[in-house]
Design a protein that fits this description.
Layout (H helix, E strand, L loop, with lengths): L7 E5 L6 H12 L2 E4 H10 L3 H11 L6 H15 L4 E4 L5 H10 L4 E6 L2 H9 L1 E4 L4 E4 L26 H25 L2 E5 L3 H23 L1
Parallel strand pairs: 1-3, 1-4, 2-3, 4-7
Antiparallel strand pairs: 5-6
Bound molecules: guanosine-5'-diphosphate and adenosine-5'-diphosphate (ADP).
Length: 223
Protein backbone atom coordinates (compact mmCIF):
# COMPACT_ATOMS: atom_id res chain seq x y z
CA UNK A 1 0.00 0.00 0.00
CA UNK A 2 1.43 3.41 -0.96
CA UNK A 3 0.40 6.13 1.47
CA UNK A 4 -0.50 9.53 0.11
CA UNK A 5 -0.37 11.24 3.48
CA UNK A 6 2.01 10.89 6.39
CA UNK A 7 0.61 8.41 8.95
CA UNK A 8 2.06 8.18 12.43
CA UNK A 9 1.30 5.43 14.90
CA UNK A 10 2.46 4.16 18.28
CA UNK A 11 2.42 0.53 19.46
CA UNK A 12 2.00 -0.06 23.21
CA UNK A 13 1.92 -3.18 25.35
CA UNK A 14 3.77 -4.84 28.21
CA UNK A 15 7.28 -6.20 27.64
CA UNK A 16 7.01 -9.40 25.60
CA UNK A 17 3.50 -8.66 24.31
CA UNK A 18 4.76 -8.89 20.72
CA UNK A 19 5.35 -5.20 19.88
CA UNK A 20 8.56 -5.94 17.98
CA UNK A 21 7.04 -8.92 16.16
CA UNK A 22 3.89 -7.03 15.14
CA UNK A 23 5.91 -3.92 14.21
CA UNK A 24 7.98 -6.01 11.80
CA UNK A 25 4.77 -7.22 10.12
CA UNK A 26 3.26 -3.72 9.97
CA UNK A 27 6.39 -2.25 8.50
CA UNK A 28 6.59 -5.03 5.87
CA UNK A 29 2.87 -4.85 4.96
CA UNK A 30 2.24 -1.11 5.12
CA UNK A 31 5.69 0.41 4.62
CA UNK A 32 5.75 2.39 7.89
CA UNK A 33 9.24 3.00 9.23
CA UNK A 34 9.71 1.00 12.45
CA UNK A 35 11.41 2.98 15.21
CA UNK A 36 12.09 0.95 18.37
CA UNK A 37 13.24 2.75 21.53
CA UNK A 38 14.80 -0.47 22.87
CA UNK A 39 16.84 -1.00 19.66
CA UNK A 40 17.93 2.65 19.76
CA UNK A 41 19.09 2.30 23.39
CA UNK A 42 20.90 -0.98 22.68
CA UNK A 43 22.78 0.69 19.78
CA UNK A 44 24.02 3.34 22.25
CA UNK A 45 25.04 0.61 24.70
CA UNK A 46 26.93 -1.28 21.97
CA UNK A 47 28.84 1.93 21.17
CA UNK A 48 30.11 1.85 24.81
CA UNK A 49 29.77 5.61 25.29
CA UNK A 50 29.29 7.24 28.71
CA UNK A 51 25.61 7.64 27.90
CA UNK A 52 25.50 3.94 26.90
CA UNK A 53 26.77 2.96 30.38
CA UNK A 54 24.07 5.03 32.09
CA UNK A 55 21.41 3.46 29.86
CA UNK A 56 22.67 -0.07 30.57
CA UNK A 57 22.54 0.49 34.32
CA UNK A 58 18.82 1.39 34.11
CA UNK A 59 17.90 -1.35 31.64
CA UNK A 60 19.69 -4.14 33.53
CA UNK A 61 17.70 -3.26 36.66
CA UNK A 62 14.44 -3.40 34.69
CA UNK A 63 13.92 0.33 35.29
CA UNK A 64 12.93 2.95 32.76
CA UNK A 65 15.53 5.35 31.38
CA UNK A 66 14.87 8.91 32.71
CA UNK A 67 12.22 10.77 30.69
CA UNK A 68 14.41 13.71 29.67
CA UNK A 69 17.17 11.45 28.27
CA UNK A 70 14.69 9.15 26.51
CA UNK A 71 12.61 11.93 24.95
CA UNK A 72 15.72 13.74 23.70
CA UNK A 73 17.05 10.55 22.03
CA UNK A 74 13.78 9.62 20.34
CA UNK A 75 12.87 13.13 19.20
CA UNK A 76 16.27 13.56 17.59
CA UNK A 77 15.82 10.18 15.83
CA UNK A 78 12.36 11.25 14.59
CA UNK A 79 13.69 14.58 13.35
CA UNK A 80 16.31 12.68 11.35
CA UNK A 81 13.59 10.58 9.62
CA UNK A 82 11.95 13.78 8.28
CA UNK A 83 8.46 13.75 6.76
CA UNK A 84 7.96 10.00 6.63
CA UNK A 85 5.26 7.75 8.07
CA UNK A 86 6.40 5.85 11.15
CA UNK A 87 5.48 3.36 13.82
CA UNK A 88 6.96 4.05 17.25
CA UNK A 89 7.58 0.91 19.31
CA UNK A 90 8.44 1.28 23.02
CA UNK A 91 7.94 5.04 23.24
CA UNK A 92 6.14 6.71 24.98
CA UNK A 93 6.26 4.64 28.18
CA UNK A 94 5.24 7.43 30.58
CA UNK A 95 2.68 10.23 30.42
CA UNK A 96 5.50 12.78 30.44
CA UNK A 97 7.01 11.12 27.34
CA UNK A 98 3.58 11.10 25.65
CA UNK A 99 3.30 14.84 26.30
CA UNK A 100 6.77 15.49 24.81
CA UNK A 101 5.77 13.52 21.72
CA UNK A 102 2.50 15.47 21.45
CA UNK A 103 4.37 18.77 21.65
CA UNK A 104 6.22 17.83 18.46
CA UNK A 105 4.08 15.41 16.41
CA UNK A 106 0.46 14.44 16.08
CA UNK A 107 -0.17 10.72 16.56
CA UNK A 108 -2.90 9.28 14.28
CA UNK A 109 -3.43 5.92 16.01
CA UNK A 110 -2.20 3.96 19.01
CA UNK A 111 -2.24 0.16 18.81
CA UNK A 112 -2.40 -1.43 22.25
CA UNK A 113 -1.46 -5.12 22.62
CA UNK A 114 -3.32 -6.50 25.62
CA UNK A 115 -1.59 -9.80 26.43
CA UNK A 116 -1.84 -11.39 29.91
CA UNK A 117 1.32 -11.23 32.08
CA UNK A 118 1.17 -15.01 32.53
CA UNK A 119 1.76 -15.53 28.79
CA UNK A 120 4.62 -13.06 28.67
CA UNK A 121 7.07 -14.45 31.21
CA UNK A 122 7.57 -17.73 29.35
CA UNK A 123 8.13 -15.92 26.05
CA UNK A 124 10.82 -13.56 27.25
CA UNK A 125 13.06 -16.20 28.74
CA UNK A 126 13.16 -17.93 25.32
CA UNK A 127 13.69 -14.74 23.26
CA UNK A 128 16.83 -14.48 21.10
CA UNK A 129 17.77 -11.20 19.43
CA UNK A 130 20.00 -10.15 16.53
CA UNK A 131 21.31 -6.92 18.03
CA UNK A 132 22.44 -5.03 14.89
CA UNK A 133 19.02 -5.36 13.15
CA UNK A 134 16.65 -5.89 16.12
CA UNK A 135 15.32 -9.12 14.51
CA UNK A 136 13.66 -11.29 17.14
CA UNK A 137 13.39 -15.07 17.45
CA UNK A 138 11.94 -17.45 19.98
CA UNK A 139 12.96 -21.03 20.58
CA UNK A 140 9.25 -22.09 20.57
CA UNK A 141 7.43 -19.55 18.39
CA UNK A 142 9.75 -18.57 15.54
CA UNK A 143 13.09 -20.37 15.88
CA UNK A 144 15.99 -19.32 13.62
CA UNK A 145 16.86 -21.74 10.77
CA UNK A 146 20.20 -22.48 12.48
CA UNK A 147 19.94 -22.39 16.30
CA UNK A 148 21.78 -19.36 17.72
CA UNK A 149 22.29 -17.57 14.37
CA UNK A 150 20.43 -14.84 12.45
CA UNK A 151 18.58 -16.05 9.30
CA UNK A 152 19.62 -13.05 7.18
CA UNK A 153 23.25 -12.33 8.12
CA UNK A 154 24.31 -15.62 9.75
CA UNK A 155 25.62 -13.60 12.71
CA UNK A 156 25.29 -14.78 16.32
CA UNK A 157 22.08 -14.17 18.28
CA UNK A 158 22.16 -13.10 21.94
CA UNK A 159 19.84 -13.44 24.92
CA UNK A 160 19.21 -9.99 26.39
CA UNK A 161 20.55 -9.47 29.94
CA UNK A 162 17.20 -7.91 30.92
CA UNK A 163 15.23 -11.03 29.90
CA UNK A 164 16.27 -12.81 33.15
CA UNK A 165 13.16 -13.82 35.17
CA UNK A 166 13.81 -11.39 38.08
CA UNK A 167 14.36 -8.44 35.71
CA UNK A 168 11.24 -9.35 33.76
CA UNK A 169 9.24 -9.13 37.02
CA UNK A 170 10.64 -5.62 37.64
CA UNK A 171 9.88 -4.56 34.04
CA UNK A 172 6.28 -5.72 34.41
CA UNK A 173 6.02 -3.61 37.61
CA UNK A 174 7.40 -0.54 35.80
CA UNK A 175 4.84 -1.20 33.07
CA UNK A 176 1.96 -1.30 35.55
CA UNK A 177 2.89 1.84 37.45
CA UNK A 178 4.39 4.03 34.72
CA UNK A 179 3.08 2.85 31.32
CA UNK A 180 -0.52 1.85 32.00
CA UNK A 181 -1.48 5.51 32.62
CA UNK A 182 -0.37 6.22 29.02
CA UNK A 183 -3.26 4.02 27.83
CA UNK A 184 -5.73 6.32 29.60
CA UNK A 185 -3.96 9.36 28.13
CA UNK A 186 -4.51 8.11 24.55
CA UNK A 187 -7.98 6.70 25.29
CA UNK A 188 -9.12 10.17 26.33
CA UNK A 189 -7.77 11.54 23.04
CA UNK A 190 -9.85 8.95 21.12
CA UNK A 191 -6.90 7.35 19.27
CA UNK A 192 -6.46 4.12 21.28
CA UNK A 193 -7.27 0.78 19.64
CA UNK A 194 -6.86 -2.31 21.85
CA UNK A 195 -6.21 -5.86 20.56
CA UNK A 196 -6.50 -8.65 23.13
CA UNK A 197 -5.18 -12.22 22.96
CA UNK A 198 -2.47 -14.69 23.87
CA UNK A 199 -1.12 -15.47 20.38
CA UNK A 200 0.38 -13.00 17.93
CA UNK A 201 -0.81 -15.03 14.91
CA UNK A 202 -4.42 -14.66 16.11
CA UNK A 203 -4.13 -10.96 16.97
CA UNK A 204 -2.31 -10.00 13.77
CA UNK A 205 -5.23 -10.44 11.25
CA UNK A 206 -7.32 -7.99 13.33
CA UNK A 207 -4.53 -5.40 13.36
CA UNK A 208 -3.94 -5.89 9.64
CA UNK A 209 -7.63 -5.44 8.86
CA UNK A 210 -7.85 -2.38 11.10
CA UNK A 211 -4.86 -0.71 9.43
CA UNK A 212 -6.11 -1.55 5.93
CA UNK A 213 -9.40 0.19 6.72
CA UNK A 214 -7.73 3.11 8.44
CA UNK A 215 -5.08 3.69 5.79
CA UNK A 216 -7.54 3.39 2.87
CA UNK A 217 -9.54 6.10 4.60
CA UNK A 218 -6.42 8.28 4.95
CA UNK A 219 -5.70 7.80 1.20
CA UNK A 220 -9.31 8.59 0.19
CA UNK A 221 -9.27 11.79 2.23
CA UNK A 222 -6.24 13.02 0.32
CA UNK A 223 -7.42 11.88 -3.15
N1 LIG B 1 5.10 -18.49 22.05
C1 LIG B 1 4.90 -17.31 21.45
N2 LIG B 1 5.92 -16.44 21.37
C2 LIG B 1 5.70 -15.26 20.75
C3 LIG B 1 4.43 -14.91 20.20
N3 LIG B 1 4.54 -13.66 19.66
C4 LIG B 1 5.80 -13.25 19.87
N4 LIG B 1 6.51 -14.22 20.51
C5 LIG B 1 7.91 -14.22 20.97
O1 LIG B 1 7.90 -13.60 22.26
C6 LIG B 1 9.06 -12.79 22.45
C7 LIG B 1 8.62 -11.35 22.73
O2 LIG B 1 8.06 -10.79 21.55
P1 LIG B 1 8.52 -9.33 21.06
O3 LIG B 1 7.90 -9.08 19.72
O4 LIG B 1 10.00 -9.20 21.18
O5 LIG B 1 7.75 -8.44 22.19
P2 LIG B 1 7.99 -6.97 22.74
O6 LIG B 1 8.88 -7.13 23.94
O7 LIG B 1 6.63 -6.46 23.10
O8 LIG B 1 8.64 -6.16 21.63
C8 LIG B 1 9.91 -12.97 21.19
O9 LIG B 1 10.86 -13.98 21.42
C9 LIG B 1 8.89 -13.40 20.11
O10 LIG B 1 9.48 -14.17 19.09
C10 LIG B 1 3.37 -15.86 20.30
O11 LIG B 1 2.23 -15.65 19.85
N5 LIG B 1 3.66 -17.03 20.93
N1 LIG C 1 10.36 4.85 26.27
C1 LIG C 1 11.22 4.38 27.18
N2 LIG C 1 11.41 5.02 28.34
C2 LIG C 1 12.27 4.58 29.28
N3 LIG C 1 12.98 3.45 29.15
C3 LIG C 1 12.84 2.74 27.99
C4 LIG C 1 11.95 3.18 26.95
N4 LIG C 1 12.01 2.28 25.93
C5 LIG C 1 12.88 1.32 26.33
N5 LIG C 1 13.37 1.60 27.57
C6 LIG C 1 14.32 0.77 28.36
O1 LIG C 1 14.81 -0.28 27.53
C7 LIG C 1 14.37 -1.56 28.02
C8 LIG C 1 14.08 -2.48 26.86
O2 LIG C 1 13.06 -1.91 26.07
P1 LIG C 1 12.37 -2.75 24.89
O3 LIG C 1 13.42 -3.34 24.01
O4 LIG C 1 11.34 -1.88 24.28
O5 LIG C 1 11.71 -3.92 25.74
P2 LIG C 1 10.48 -4.84 25.37
O6 LIG C 1 10.61 -5.12 23.88
O7 LIG C 1 10.67 -6.08 26.14
O8 LIG C 1 9.23 -4.12 25.73
C9 LIG C 1 13.18 -1.23 28.93
O9 LIG C 1 12.96 -2.23 29.91
C10 LIG C 1 13.64 0.09 29.55
O10 LIG C 1 14.60 -0.10 30.55
Amino acid sequence: MVLQRVFRAVILGPPGSGKGTVSGRISKTFGLKHISSGDLLRRHIEAKTELGLLLKSCIDLGQLVPDDVMSRLILSDLRATGQSSWLLDGFPRTVSQAESLDDNYSVDKVINLNVPFQTIKQRLTSRWTHLPSGRIYNTDFNPPQVPGFDDVTGEALVQRDDDKPETVTQRLKSYETQTQPVLEYYRSKGVLETFTGTETNKIWPHIEEFLHRRLSYVNQKVA
